[in-house]
Amino acid sequence: MAHIPDGVVTAPVLVTGAAVSAGLLGMALRRLDFDRLPQAAVLSAAFFVASLITIPLGPSSVHLLLNGLMGLLLGWTALPALFVALVLQAAFFGFGGVLVLGVNTMNMALPALACAALLRPMLPRLAPGALFWIGAAAGALGVLMTAALVALSLGLSGEPFLPAARVVAIIYAPLALVEAFIAGTVVTFLHRVDPELLLQDEASRV
Amino acid sequence: MSERLTKQSRLRRRPASAVLLVALLLAGGPTLAHKLRVFAFADGARIEGSAYFAGGGKAAGTRIVVKDAAGRTVAELTPAADGSFSYMAKAPVDHLIVAESGDGHRAEWKVSAGELASGFAADNEGSHLQIATPADPGTPAPGTGTVTSSRPAPHDAGVDPALEAAVERAVARQIRPLREELIAAQDAYRLQDILGGVGYIFGVAGLALWWRARRFGSRR
Questions:
Q1: How many alpha carbons fall within 13 Å on the CB side of residue A98?
Q2: Is the CB of B201 less than 8 angstroms away from the CB of A84?
Q3: How much is the average pLDDT of B169-191?
Q4: Cβ distance B104 to B96 under 8 Å?
């Protein structure tokens, strides 16, 4: 799952994850859009809590990730939001190790940024009916890219890559569908109650 | 400037996201969680245990690896549908039980040599005595009297080692539910943890906004 515990991935993967995450966080903090901070805090809290609702699935158990949705709504500001929530999950619940925080952050943050870069620019231009599908695409893309990155982290750490990737794919494919539906619903809901939330700010553009 | 101000004022009224968060909080409930756990206790020489996701159901599809004190793998087990497994220990040494789900979840549990001792009492009395009473039975008792005061050394009292092993096993069986309950209590995530985490998140956001207000001053 997205919370890799300590002792599973090897040192080169740990160092790479930490370096990538630190770099991305630095960039995100320089471009931080303070007007989005309250919204980022709310989504960060939702991400923090979502990991507590789990469903047993195959040999593992899954929970919503919400990183695609965060990327779509927040842009760069999603990074500090994800990082803070991951730190607190490790501290309060023991989800994911302390040393692998960099790897876990990278696995969640890169898909969020991809959603922000690919899907976010479309938001203001689209008809309300199409918004659901943009949200759904962000939800599915976030989950599937995270799955690929987790499988890659495990594969580079000596876990037999193909079995690990197979397990991860089995687990994440249904989750991607669920998450797509939820993200699409959230985006539609936000558009109805507060369309300004979906506006694109220059500062946080990826 | 005026455009900026309207954007500001609109951004400020934002109950929608808060509604979303509250809904998620209510849907979640305080006790479900997501972490692979494994525990195992010795019943005589047999190690019986269970693998599960804390709060999220049994972990039937995991792989259980049993390692001895030197770190060598002595057995690989597949748990039953309810996540339980058992293994006959070959020697009274420390055993490390590792559970892996194949997608990055991993958990460990240690079964100590002392726990397994009673299972090997009958066929290996010497090692049993060494483990059951830390002192060498040959030495005079004054130093050890305080340690084992509640139970006279079997050597002195002439207690049948088989009987003592049976007692140890019975006690282990009796306290097993207590140990399981203790583990379950550790797994339960409490509401104050969740609220504390959410509070930290808003605190950090508030600090960032405060820092920015100090640095750039108020807009007005």
A1: 2
A2: yes
A3: 82
A4: no
Whole-number Å distance between alpha carbons of B57 and A59? 11
> What does the alpha-carbon distance between residue B105 and residue A155 come to, in Å, rounded to a whole number?
14
- B193: contact with A, CB 8 A cutoff: yes
B205 contacts A41? CB cut-off 8 A: yes
Three-state DSSP at B109 gives strand
pTM: 0.71
Q: How many inter-chain contacts (A to B, CB under 8 Å) are there?
A: 165
Please give the share of chain A, as a percent, with pLDDT higher than 90: 30
From chain A, pick out residues whose CB is under 8 angstroms from the CB of B193.
92-93
Using a CB-CB distance cutoff of 8 angstroms, which residues of chain A are in contact with residue B78? none
Kindly tell me the burial class for residue B156, based on how many C-beta atoms sit within 10 Å of its own C-beta (0-12, 13-18, 19 or more).
Answer: exposed
Q: What is the DSSP letter of B83?
A: S
- pLDDT of B19: 57
Q: Residue B38 has what pLDDT?
A: 86
d(CA A160, CA A166): 10
ipTM: 0.76
**Residue indicated by tokens 């919204």:** A39
Strands across the sheet containing B106-111 = B73-77, B63-67, B95-100, B106-111
